Amino acid sequence: MMNRLSRRMILPILLVSPSVLRAQPASSPSDGRSSGQGDEVSAAARASGAPGTHNVAAAIEQQMTDYIRGSPLQELQTKGTITIVRGIADVRVNASNRDWVRFRSTAYERAYTDAQAKFLESQGLRIAAQASNDYFSAGGEEPPPFNAGAAQAPGQMNDLFRKLAGLANAQIDQLLREASLDPRQYEVAPPPQRAVMLRDSYRRSTVRRALGELSGMIACKTFEGHDGQGNFQIGVVGVISQRLTDFAADVLRRRGDFTPNPANAGESPETILDNKDDLVRQFGARRIFDAEGYPVIIAFGQWASANLGAGGSAARTNALERAAISQARAMADTQLSFFLSSQAAFETDNRAGDIYEAAVSRMPDNSVLPEADGIAIIDRVRERYQATSNVNIVGLADLGGVWRHKHPVTGADIIGVVRIWSPRAEQAARARQERPAPATQVLQPQQAVPPAAPPGTESGRSLMRARDF
After folding, report:
1. What's the rounded Cα separation, in Å, for the pair 450 and 415?
2. Contact 56, 44 (CB under 8 A)
3. Predicted confidence (pLDDT) per residue in 301-350, tens digit
4. Cα–Cα distance between 363 and 147 in angstroms, integer?
5. I need a surface site. Which of 89, 101, 269, 291 has the fewest CB within 10 A?
6. Max CA-CA distance within the chain?
7. How many Cα neighbours within 13 Å face the side chain of 256?
């Protein structure tokens, strides 16, 4: 029976063949700019064939290594200009789960958190360690005799309860005898008492703590891999430099006063929205340059509508989508806020060791029964990470509205938002805030009439020219 149970409990390990893993062309970051389609998520697995011989995490690690070595990042880190960190996290549900898109988004955030924690450790780590070895032997002694009153706690109230229990037992025994039943068949013998005769144990405790600033860190590139069976993992390459940290501080203090540098000019940020397949592969915050050379911050957020089952009205569908848009926007704003100003604390508590123990059992009749030797391993890990940010940013807005697209591998529906900050948007917002508000005219609302036309969208005629703004 145990063999049958064991065979049913063994789960097959699903791995990925190297031929399944194909990285997309890696962009080469330079001066904070991206080339081609931008800092994209490399889909580490495109095929959905049978699993092979490599696991997903190892494949993503290799993809990240190839990306770093094939870009200027490796040389910049060697010179000490930047610091590169990595993080990996699994999507905790299979792609067949209706909440997979939301778990995928949180997997990115956990992977980025892993990278942030590694950066904190590299900047300074406080380590508190302790090791102990405990040896005890009583092999030459007689085990203590059985103590029938060992489990009885002293005290007046406990004595009273024991007496009441004894009286109740006597009355119940009498009733059983009157019913021609032997009370002894209902008695339970007291459990044996264990005595440790030999113990040899080793214990080690290590607590590591790290505190630091994360301002200026970006998720330079993210990677996504799967095993062909719907099990996904996300990898992140994080980069931080003094230049990015200084820029983040300038955004918060210069009130949008930046001078464009034509040498850094790139594409218009709106072109990011042209490729929806690429948008699905974008997470985190980036510092790019627009067509005139102004520095711009963009941040990506993705989510999906909650699934409350079949049926439901259009109002429910719209309400759930509104919640998903809000979550996507919050995800992007969080990443942007962490880039501008953030502090974090990381702590890991590791316990390890082993225990050997020999013991005997003293029975109620004072006989001694040996127990099998006990051997145990101590293996416990607890990690805590917390990052905080509190910034006031002016001029932040959605770039081109909400986008919707299906995941290229799973076909799951994704709702996304791209958030953008630019110096000119901040200056325009501040100018509006400082301008005196004109007198407003109260308009009477008109009663809306439900449309009777087929579903569709319409737009009103443009009444203003571009120069009117």
Report:
1. 28
2. yes
3. 999 999 887 777 889 999 999 999 999 999 999 999 999 999 999 999 99
4. 10
5. 291
6. 108
7. 16
